[in-house]
Amino acid sequence: PKSSLLVLVPFPSPSPASFPIVPPTPPPSPPPAAAMPVYRIRGVDVDFPYDAYDCQITYMDRVLQSLQQGNNALLESPTGTGKTLCLLCSALAWRRTFGEFLRGGGGGGGGGGSQPSGSQQSGASATQSSSYPVIIYASRTHSQLRQVIKELKATSYRPKMAVLGSREQMCIHEEVSKLRGKAQNNGCHYLCKKRLCRHNNIVTDYMKNNTELGSEPFDIEDLVNIGRTKGPCPYYISRELSKSVDILFAPYNYLIDPGNRRSLTGISWNNAVLIFDEAHNLESICADAASFDLLTSNLTSCITEAQECIQLCSFKRSIENSAEKQFDPENYAILKALLMALEKKIGELVIDSKELGYTKPGSYIYEFLSELNITSETSKKLIETIDSASLLLEEGNSGETKAGVKAKSTVSRLETIRDMLDIIFKGGGQNHAKYYSFHVNESSRQTSGDSLQVFGKASRTLSWWCFNPGLAMEEFLKLGVRSIILTSGTLSPLDSLAMELNLEFPVRLENPHVISQDQIWVGVVPVGPSGHPLNSSYRTRETVKYKQELGTVIVNFARIVPDGLLVFFPSYSMMDKCIDYWKNRNHEHSVDDSTIWQRMCKHKQPVIEPRQSSNFPNAIEDYAAKLRDPSTSGAIFFAVCRGKVSEGLDFADRAGRAVIVTGMPFSTPTDPKVRLKREYLDKQAKPSNKNPK
């Protein structure tokens, strides 16, 4: 049964291993020989830093097949089979068949940020680079990219590289670096436009005098160090470098989010190779990037901002005595009136059932908005007005008189309306609406901390959900990308993934693990010691019986398993409830007086995954310290599926002698988004399909 307890026990290697909890390392291959082995695969010589396993050769073969044929690929290879290293070595070996890697001078003359520079010296290198395909390597998070760049250092390849990050990670301006989100971007644009940021002003010269930058692997931290010691802006250095590279590292959302992608000027998409590593949740990221949820509480904040703009405008005019056309109070008054009408209209929709909400086909959004005279045509004017509003609010907050930017400015809420209009009127057409659902639901509880909510008034959310993740992928095909490679430890079933993404994937691989069957035991534990079923489904997981039985099972495992034991719960609340119960109670049949928790702690010292990300490094250190403590027989880490412990960390050797999964975090079937997505997929499977899957 899917709701039982799942236990996984890897059998330890005989060596007394040390305990690093670090992000995943390549498989335990022999140390690099003096000369790296060279493998000839599909006519390409691939330098590999270790003796490769069979599954690694197969994997590199598929990567090369995809690149040589210009086809898309789905490549599944279990965690620990060194897929990152295989990807880098095979892709860079293929890239080198076109000619040597780029060297200094690339991107040197591109002006720091928004100023065009007088220098023409990068002309030659820029054209030189454009004839070669660029490799764009994307992963989900920056910490995963840091790992990838670390792997690149282990290879013999030294391509010209760049890594993209956000201003939040890279800005070193004393005022702007304190801001967040859109406010930070606006603050940066404002200062650069007025040439008031000394870091941005020297980027061009720094790039001209340091043409070798990017020839050795580097990380975001390295760029920030250059900025702190030498002064140029790390953010704009990374943007300049990215214009002429062999390989570019970036987080997913930079490529998938249309706004972010627009800002990446200078990348030659034509014939580029896109690699999505850790691609197992790519569909949900693609669908989310094309969807929006508009809370009425956020609308209220937008109305307040529009009102501020009207006041700032009138104030600006009275001081400057000019009628600047861009800042016409009349425009902001129209914007405010429209937003108020939208708020009223959302509030007037009749919702018969709170559980079902108000649902219409995706195309209904055009009818809904046209009643407010928001159409494809008028939306252009609205977007212009919102853009100028952002500038106006920025100037208003920075108090024009001072050179700096005051850190008091908040996030510009109006930007969310702009993004929403962008999604709805994408490309001026309505063709994409058939992949959407229009949904409004009501929640009486406060949803977000910063909403200005009228007490007791129910808050509504207008959602336009995209159920076709392939829309984002289509954009890449329009840009003329050569191959898209998706890889992860868990991609199967490959058919449904390919169907969801609406792309052809002629090259596919499901690799076996390098670990043999007798090195690991996986089993399902259906009942506890007193015969009570371990069913973690919604109906039974709250019962006293279940919590007692689960606690006793974990006590038994803690007694038998040496060193580190990991226990995963479906959610934070479930973990908290179980631990609270165990701390106060014992099993009814137990002869021992102590609580279940005390019995666990007798065998292993506990560490609990914190909800706050900032406390997480301390929890990891605490776990490592408790494992090293000779006075006990190890430690037990209580964590949450899909949380911070569940991905990107390597519990090697003593750190993870067994893993217990108490239940799966399935989304509730009554959740409107889940329900509508299922209906959408059922519809997809039925109609004219001769061979429905």
From TrEMBL:
| All residue ranges annotated as the Helicase ATP-binding domain in the record | 42-330
BP terms from Gene Ontology: DNA repair; negative regulation of DNA recombination; negative regulation of t-circle formation; regulation of double-strand break repair via homologous recombination; telomeric loop disassembly
The record's annotation in SMART domains points to: DEXDc2 (SM00488), HELICc2 (SM00491)
Q: Name one GO molecular function term.
A: DNA binding
UniProt KW S-adenosyl-L-methionine keyword: no
Q: Which domain of life is it from?
A: Eukaryota
Q: Which CDD domains match?
A: DEAHc_FancJ
Keywords for this protein? 4Fe-4S, ATP-binding, DNA damage, DNA repair, DNA-binding, Helicase, Hydrolase, Iron, Iron-sulfur, Isomerase, Metal-binding, Nucleotide-binding, Nucleus
Report the leader peptide range: none
Q: Where is the composition biased (Gly residues)?
A: 105-115
Q: Which segments show compositional bias classed as Low complexity?
A: 116-127
Q: What is this protein called?
A: Helicase ATP-binding domain-containing protein
Q: What InterPro entries does this protein's entry cite?
A: ATP-dep_Helicase_C, DinG/Rad3-like, Helic_SF1/SF2_ATP-bd_DinG/Rad3, Helicase-like_DEXD_c2, P-loop_NTPase, RAD3-like_helicase_DEAD, Rad3/Chl1-like, Rtel1_ARCH
Q: Where is this region: Disordered?
A: 105-127
Subcellular location, record wording = Nucleus
Q: Can you supply one Gene Ontology CC term for this chain's record?
A: nucleus
